[in-house]
Amino acid sequence: MQFHLHKMADTYATTDSIHVLQVDDTPLLDETVEFPDGRDPDSLTLTTTDRADSALERLEDNAIDGIVTADDLPDRSGREFAEIVRERDSNVPVLLLTESESVASDAVSNGVTDVFSRDTALGRGDLLANRIRLLVEHHQSTETASRTRRQLTELAEQSNELLWVFSGDWTEIQFVNSAYETLYGRSVESLQADPAEFMTAIHHTDQERVMQAMQRVSAGESVDLEFRITKPDGEQRWVRAEAQPIVDDGTVTRIVGASRDITERKRRESERITELDSPDAPVDAVPDLFYELDENGDLVRWNDALAAATEHEDADLESMGLTAFFAPSDRETVRQGIEAAFETGEASFKADLLTAEGTTVPYEFTGGRITAADGSTLGVAGIGREISTLDSRQQALEQQNERLDEFVSVVSHDLRNPLDVARGQLELAQMEHDSEHLDAVERAHDRIGQLIEDLLSLARNGEAALDSESVPLQTVVEQCWQTVETGDATLELRTAAVVRAAPSRLRQLFENLIRNSVEHGQTPHTEKQGDTGEQRATTSISQSQGAATDLTITVGELNDGFYVADDGVGIPADEREDVFEGGYSLASGPGFGLRIVDEIVDTHGWSITVAESDAGGARFEITGVEFDAA
């Protein structure tokens, strides 16, 4: 009896060689067997024993990809052996050799993966080897598919947005991340059980509009709309949802989308309208259109911007009906929007403003209900903003999305690689073995492929706007320090400032800057001099694991922003203008970290520059930041 022990680097990795444990006192396999597809004989590594107890010891000591066992062993039956194996490893494939039909009929229920005729295997070790190879590759493909799905789920859970995938007719929820529970106040499980559940949360005055939008998506149209929802505790929130159809062979098979809470933005718009409604408010100084309607919906107050946009004199505006200001095709939309403002207290809609010369200009309007001290309705007031003035902003967003595409392509490559390997192995298995189990694996691969495309589609859509809020820099930086591998590096916090920013994007900015310093800034520690900028608070944190040694990273405050500096090797002066370009890196890797930082800075309307820190390392200064009182 000879043992061939071969330690595998990864039990579940798809490799050129598979390690099979053969448990048989009359072994039928040997390592010289040739596979039908002409594979190298070295692709099979065997460990052979004649007893079940000895085989169990081999399982403890070696990475085994598959087991071939005889039904009749000296110390126990093959089925009993399979049951013990299953208690220790629920996944490793077990192939049972038998001639008994009764044994074969109930073998699978005893932990056996598949059954093979011993008579057939006599003299045909190639067939037996091929059967166990197919079982192993099937198992490895399933493991790869499961691992890829976990990666996708983890990716989605990093987003603060609600990401979802519905079937083309909205009857099945195929994917949703846990942000649903935060936004809607309901469990993911309840939505999976009843995909129409989210509709019950939508405000009754918005439901018809949402249903019409859903029908348009099912017909192949992308939509972007805002509506109100009511959580189970009675809290009302505003939601912005973007939905995109996925079309296969001319049919909408899936609908992918992202939703986010815009309640804070709506609150700010409402406050602005209330301020403008004051009789003493200098409405003519407002660059946007201002309008006020009485309880009958007639225009009673406006600013100079409305007269300039419509090219009408004030005397003409006073006598005109509301719908006369808009293109005929948009008048029903305007009427419904104003009715919604009277009924619910606020509304928003898009419509083309009609000038005295008959030309049209696209506008976005918001409106809020005006009430008296006794609660009675006095009218509606609101503002209108020309959409064409946002073209430069849209162009900037499109450029950001193009850069995001570059990053997404790199990430998708890492996700698709293991799936492509699994699909290739599955195709080989299907050519040689017809099994419903392999069909199930193929469906699982297709499902994961769909999720990859859908989630990447969501990522490529980008964000049309940021919902900023007050964010303490110290809290965000400390959180990032716990999630980035910083090794023995030390963090010094020299700020207690509170800034206006999108929390998730600000965390991403600091994570990338800290990771950049750790990966590219390592150098023997030198005496650190004080960085410039006002110091409000200083905190030191150190971690013991990782690659960085004797590196200090400092986050401090500037008059109109903040900085991240280190005492590492720094960035050469002639390369500082290039660090934000995709693919730039001082070490091996894709080099997209600082490109992402640049995008986040641009999205907030800030500026970023690179300089040398007082200690000779790199210093990134972010300016144009709005501070809040701490």
UniProtKB/TrEMBL annotation:
<dbReference type="InterPro" id="IPR013656">
    <property type="entry name" value="PAS_4"/>
</dbReference>
<dbReference type="InterPro" id="IPR013655">
    <property type="entry name" value="PAS_fold_3"/>
</dbReference>
<dbReference type="InterPro" id="IPR036097">
    <property type="entry name" value="HisK_dim/P_sf"/>
</dbReference>
<feature type="domain" description="PAC">
    <location>
        <begin position="223"/>
        <end position="274"/>
    </location>
</feature>
<dbReference type="Pfam" id="PF00512">
    <property type="entry name" value="HisKA"/>
</dbReference>
<feature type="region of interest" description="Disordered">
    <location>
        <begin position="517"/>
        <end position="545"/>
    </location>
</feature>
<dbReference type="InterPro" id="IPR035965">
    <property type="entry name" value="PAS-like_dom_sf"/>
</dbReference>
<feature type="domain" description="Histidine kinase">
    <location>
        <begin position="410"/>
        <end position="623"/>
    </location>
</feature>
<dbReference type="InterPro" id="IPR001789">
    <property type="entry name" value="Sig_transdc_resp-reg_receiver"/>
</dbReference>
<dbReference type="Pfam" id="PF02518">
    <property type="entry name" value="HATPase_c"/>
</dbReference>
<feature type="compositionally biased region" description="Polar residues">
    <location>
        <begin position="535"/>
        <end position="545"/>
    </location>
</feature>
<dbReference type="InterPro" id="IPR011006">
    <property type="entry name" value="CheY-like_superfamily"/>
</dbReference>
<keyword id="KW-0808">Transferase</keyword>
<dbReference type="Pfam" id="PF08447">
    <property type="entry name" value="PAS_3"/>
</dbReference>
<keyword id="KW-0418">Kinase</keyword>
<dbReference type="InterPro" id="IPR050736">
    <property type="entry name" value="Sensor_HK_Regulatory"/>
</dbReference>
<dbReference type="InterPro" id="IPR003594">
    <property type="entry name" value="HATPase_dom"/>
</dbReference>
<dbReference type="GO" id="GO:0000155">
    <property type="term" value="F:phosphorelay sensor kinase activity"/>
</dbReference>
<keyword id="KW-0902">Two-component regulatory system</keyword>
<dbReference type="InterPro" id="IPR000700">
    <property type="entry name" value="PAS-assoc_C"/>
</dbReference>
<feature type="compositionally biased region" description="Basic and acidic residues">
    <location>
        <begin position="525"/>
        <end position="534"/>
    </location>
</feature>
<dbReference type="InterPro" id="IPR001610">
    <property type="entry name" value="PAC"/>
</dbReference>
<dbReference type="InterPro" id="IPR000014">
    <property type="entry name" value="PAS"/>
</dbReference>
<dbReference type="Pfam" id="PF08448">
    <property type="entry name" value="PAS_4"/>
</dbReference>
<dbReference type="InterPro" id="IPR036890">
    <property type="entry name" value="HATPase_C_sf"/>
</dbReference>
<dbReference type="InterPro" id="IPR003661">
    <property type="entry name" value="HisK_dim/P_dom"/>
</dbReference>
<dbReference type="InterPro" id="IPR005467">
    <property type="entry name" value="His_kinase_dom"/>
</dbReference>
<protein>
    <recommendedName>
        <fullName>histidine kinase</fullName>
        <ecNumber>2.7.13.3</ecNumber>
    </recommendedName>
</protein>
<feature type="domain" description="PAS">
    <location>
        <begin position="148"/>
        <end position="221"/>
    </location>
</feature>
<feature type="domain" description="Response regulatory">
    <location>
        <begin position="19"/>
        <end position="133"/>
    </location>
</feature>
<feature type="domain" description="PAS">
    <location>
        <begin position="283"/>
        <end position="345"/>
    </location>
</feature>
